[in-house]
Amino acid sequence: MNDKALQDNPLLDFSGLPRFDEVKAAHVTPAIDHLLLQGRDTLEQLASATETPTWENFVRPMEDMEEQISRAWSQVSHMNAVVNSPELREAYNENLPKLTAFYADLSQDERLYARFRALRDSAAYASLSATQRKIVDNELRDFRLGGAELPDDQKARFKAIQEELSTLSAKFEENLLDTTNDFSLYIDQADTLRGIPEDALQAAQDAAREDGKTGWKFTLHFPSYMPVLQYADDRALREQLYRAYATRASEFGKPEWDNTALISSILKLRHEASVMLDYANYAEMSLATKMAESPAQVEEFLQTLAKRAKPFAERDMQELREYAASKLGLAELQAWDIAYASEKLREEKYAFSDQEVKQYFPEEQVLHGLFKVTETIFGVHVRKSAAPVWHENAEFYEITDHQGKLVGQFYLDLYARNNKRGGAWMDEAITRRKKSHGIETPVAFLTCNFSAPVGDKPALFTHDEVITMFHEFGHGLHHMLTQVDDYGVSGIKGVEWDAVELPSQFMENFCWEWDVLRHMTKHVETGAQLPRALFDKMIAAKNFQAGMQTVRQIEFSLFDMRLHGDFDPHGSKTSLDLIEEVRDEVAVVRPPKWNRFPNNFSHIFAGGYGAGYYSYKWAEVLSADAYSLFEENGVLSEETGRRFWDEILAQGGSRPALESFIAFRGRAPDIDALLRHNGMTT
Ligand code: ZN
Q1: Pick the catalytic residue: 63, 472, 496, 555?
Q2: Lowest-confidence region among 112-126, 246-260, 343-357, 497-511
Q3: Which pLDDT tens digit goes with each residue over 391-403?
């Protein structure tokens, strides 16, 4: 590759916004190879330098390098996700392992670790800004957690553990997938299927036909499984599917797909690794990078929540039992009846459909409402702008402050289409940083998969989609409204895992606020606002069985926390014994003895949630409690908005999330607001 080609490579142009109209798959490998070669060069120089490390001669060049790699790569991975093609996918897959290897080497380079330590121990450290000190501290922490402080013989063992853990986690997930895929149930008798909605039946019929069979095919994949559990009147059918689902990857199936031994091995290895790093257990190690301070604090948090939620959960369960007995003839409510009876009860209590609600939320009105909330509480302006994009449906916006100064920009790509990954997410295109020429303003990608407009009708959003939009925009605001000058903790970078959902879930609250929401509605045909009575039903439906759902999340969280805490992975007590014990304390629904939930709890054994499942509830408490200050001061209070910006959004990861929260709220987080928002107050 000659210099001219590199100069013309749009992925290597960092002077402004990405040149999405020019980026081709053929640009990827030359750009990444070039950046990694340069990166290795930089790292080698930094690692072998002999002068005393300072921010300017050591950390800044490292951040410069990382910023360039991540800016180039974020364009590649974004396009791979939203305008996928065979060429792009190949380029992506070819380069991903190179990047992984590059960062693995960086994180294990003892010379770099020694340079960071030297910086921390030098006189220069005290003169760094608090933000810069935080970046150095985070680096030291991550090196330590990566085993950098271990003696050589232990280092090898530590590395072997990490490798084995990643193999075991992958195997756990594979087993679960294999057992899920392995099951299928063909049904020929139409009356067995009474109650199941038409679209689910259609899908089941198509699936059978694909296998060259007549009738209907059901599997354990969620979109096939769930409608049966929720709607099938045939109790035996529900039981059959429930049993298959609840015993996946256990001793009841093929021995080679049984996750029981994997659970035990994973727990032992995690425990061993944490003890090597001088933690009492894996739970403590997991919390080293989180907002929660100790396993005891998480335990207490969950216990407090359980105590408050359980009476409501019991009431929910009582209501369901009575309803099932009197209206459905289900005297004894079984595990496979819960979803079914709940659905019937929900329909009876709150009869409205998503379709009905959707007519009130045309795209333009929703976006206008979202931007209006943002403008009102933060005193900024959001307006459409222009930039090269990857697809004709993608749009570009800018946010300016009250003086007209640019704060941040974002791409908005709302509709589902072929070759676009499902789901909704926010990603970083450019991160805010202070550079020699001034501030580089942040840019975000906001991606959703809503239905595109049909004919001359605008796109219509369900209320869930409106909430999703607000949620992702909240992540976007965290990224775009940051005021941090240094890369490593700017925006969402360096924010603790259990606190990162605060701004996103915070924004969701506005979707349940009558005075905000009604202005976002305009019936697509009549132009009418959402009727208050329909809104009231939506609120009531939102809190339906909130008690039961809360204690279920607590059950999983306590199980996860204790399993990685006091639990002895070498002892005689099994994970099944433990979950039964937890259920004795908090659950209102008792699954059958043969239920093997731990064997398919992939969040904690295959995902990143080991000793971290509590984060869901933890972050909900933070966001609800933060929002409650707006409820006290007026939900569109500009003064409160300013404070939320200054103390939370602006700070990014530059200080602990708890400090930011207290600075905003004036006190530590409290669970009351969450319980109130979920209708769990007396
Ligand atoms: Zn989120």
Answers
A1: 472
A2: 343-357
A3: 999 999 999 999 9
What residues flank ion ligand 1 with Cβ within 5 A?
A: 504
The pLDDT-based confidence of 422 (bands split at 50, 70, 90) is confident
Ligand 1 geometric centre to CA of 502 (Å): 9
* Predicted local confidence at residue 379, as pLDDT: 97
Q: What is the arithmetic mean of pLDDT over 41-55?
A: 96
Distance 475 CA to ligand 1 centre (A): 7
Q: How confident is the model at residue 351 (pLDDT cuts 50, 70, 90)?
A: confident
User: Ligand 1 centroid vs 501 CA: distance in angstroms?
Assistant: 5
- Say how many Å lie between the CA of residue 59 and the centre of ligand 1: 30
Ligand 1 centroid to 505 CA: how many Å? 7
The closest of 358, 351, 354, 353 to 525, measured between CA atoms, is 358
DSSP string, 17-62: S--TTT--HHHHHHHHHHHHHHHHHHHHHHHH--SPP-IIIIIHHH
For 590, other C-beta atoms within 10 Å of its C-beta total 11
Q: Please name the amino acid found at residue 233.
A: D
Strands (E), 362-452: 381-385, 395-400, 406-415, 425-430, 433-435, 438-440, 443-450
Distance (Å) from CA 426 to ligand 1 centroid: 8
- Residue 616 CA to ligand 1 center (angstroms) comes to 10
Residue 397's DSSP bridge partners are: 384, 410
Using the Cα atoms of residue 19, residue 21, residue 26 and residue 29 in order, give the sign of their dihedral: positive
**Residue whose token pair is 């060259």:** 212
List phi, psi (to 5°) of 438.
130, -160
Q: For a pLDDT cut of 90, what percent of the chain falls above it?
A: 91
Pairwise CA distance, residues 556 & 517, whole Å: 33
What tokens appear for 83 in the block? 């305008």
Q: Which residues pair with 65 in a beta bridge?
A: none
Measured between alpha carbons, how far is residue 520 from residues 106, 355, 462, 595 in Å? Answer: 48, 17, 12, 45
Look up residue 201 and give its two tokens. 């039946």
Distance 606 CA to ligand 1 centre (A): 20
Q: Calculate helix-pair angle for 615-633, 295-327, nearest 10 degrees.
A: 90
CA nearest to 440, candidates 67, 105, 135: 67
Asked whether the CA dihedral 367, 450, 513, 377 is positive or negative, the reply is negative
User: Residue 472 catalytic?
Assistant: yes
CA–CA gap between residue 581 and residue 467 (Å, rounded): 36
> How confident is the model at residue 223, as a pLDDT?
83
User: Can you give the pTM of this predicted structure?
Assistant: 0.91
Burial of 362 (0-12, 13-18, 19+ CB in 10 A): buried
Residue 399's SS3 state is strand
Strand (E) or helix (H) holding 595? none
What mean pLDDT value characterizes the chain? 95
Instruction: Give the residue, 607 or 148, on which the prediction is more confident.
Output: 148
Residue 1 clears pLDDT 60, i.e. is over it: no
